[in-house]
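Complex record, two chains
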Amino acid sequence: MESSDLMAPVDKPMADREAHAPDAFNHQPKIVLDGEGPLLLDSGVSLAPLTITYQAYGELNAHKSNAILVCHALTGDQYVGGVHPVTGRPGWWDNVVGPGRPLDTDRYFVLCANVLGGCMGSLGPQEGDPKTGKPYALSFPVVTIGDMVRAQARLLDHLGVEQLFCVIGGSMGGMQALEWASRYPERVFSAVPIAAAARHTAQNIAFHEVGRQAIMSDPDWCGGDYLSQGKRPRQGLAVARMAAHITYLSDLAFHRKFGRLLQDSREITYGFDAEFQVESYLRHQGSAFVDRFDANSYLYITRAMDYFDLAAEHDGVLSKSFHDTPVRFCVIAFTSDWLFPTTESQSVVRALNANAANVSFCEIETDKGHDSFLLDEPEFFDVLNGFLRGAAKHRGLI
Amino acid sequence: MTNSDKGSSYVKPVMSDGIRVDLRLIATLIEPGARVLDVGCGDGSLLRYLVEEKDVDGRGLEISQAGVRACLRQGLSVVQGDADADLKNYPSGAFDYVVLSETLQTTHNPLVVLRELVRIGRFAIVSFPNFGYWHCRWQLLVGGRMPITKSLPLPWHATPNIHFSTIADFIETCRQEDIKVARSYAVNQRGTLGRFFGARVFANLFGAQGVFLLATELPRQDDESRAG
């Protein structure tokens, strides 16, 4: 998810924007991880060569014990801090990652990789299929959260990081953090799943399906083959983003910012232009998104989230996913998050408690909805700081 | 119980570290390095003391967000949750000690909570305000008003306490529930504490707070002497 950015200008119509490809940028570092052979996916398909792009902030210490892996959300990317090379705006977690910030780059080595299936340089549907030389498009295999995590594990092998000090992420990033802790407990000292869940609910899947249908019903999607045909399903992807964006906020957040305010006129005009400010805002969100994201990637990543059900991998019993886990957990939820509600985080906490695991859990009071984890929430930062400091003390980092 | 432990032996509380006298007493009952769950841990003052001074593997459960945040800020492991609803999730015997200080009287179902404590912990340590304290009795008998004391500071409409008991009630409840009382203490209004055994009437009258070490089975002699 992108920062909801309620201060963004709300007057840019999307139709007359110049179409340009988000894949035109050469993302670096980009490495080929084929040392261990093809990556065997949950679907049974093997994928090679596996290319992953990532960003690193801070220095890895001599013991290689201070690495933090940030897992990004659905439409996030590896540009956590600094300036994003495609959008020219600050990284999506610039308020959390940096010197003196909760993920203090003076102390920690902070890593973030573009997920498998993504569109910022890692292997995904817009990359070239070595067999055909053309973009994979829909011939790209469906990937899962587990596949994304296995790809990240290969990146860590490559970098020589045996154990992460912390794996952290919000939303889909939180799903990856849970998957990491469950699949590789010995490689994770601490895990911070934020505004996340151990499964995608029917409602979550339903919203994703709306987005996918919007993309697939755009004629410019061309059955997924738009890149080869020099087209882009801009309208479909923008509508998908608009619908999704609503789920990242809350009723109160919308009301506070827009109310029923009109965009340009003083009175309603009895038409279907973007009269209300909220309409204009959503259209802007949609069109800005199209400039930086690939439609097929959106299909694949939403599917990966839909398939996520950690308990299902363990006979339907979530607590078995964390059997005798040595990982220190900090689970964080937000009161107004109706997309990944607190009850989902509580299920994770219950499963961890059933293992008498070392777990902290806090529900942060805020009216800003699911995207709260991207915003300046002092209480959230407080909790994050406290947990990381406590964990760092136990890890011997401070 | 050894002979020397019998009867009341009042000791001066040590308050120099700013920790509440009942919490201080609770800390003395806990072996160093033990696994401890503090139910209703508040701002984490006991938990922090135990982690720092006794090197325990400590966890907390706290209902208020402010309390949880205060704990997490100190690097403590605390879950935001409710003693009434969440204790059932913990496995049996997961902790050496489960502490419930000044919280039992705020729970909706104290009996269930009590049973859970001795299920989850090898030992449970429970402290609560004693409604049988002479000052309470006096206010009710003479003034005809609900008591307000140091351990019961709020008026009837503002108090979170919904299940009052006396030290005598508590001992009887433990007997009925087959929960063994390994040690019992009374803390008076001045913060002085005393161990009582065979002096229940006295404790129930002069103790503002009761502090109990409970077990499903009586601890062995060596456990008992270490705990002291």
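Note: The domain at 22-395 of chain A is CATH 3.40.50.1820 (Rossmann fold).
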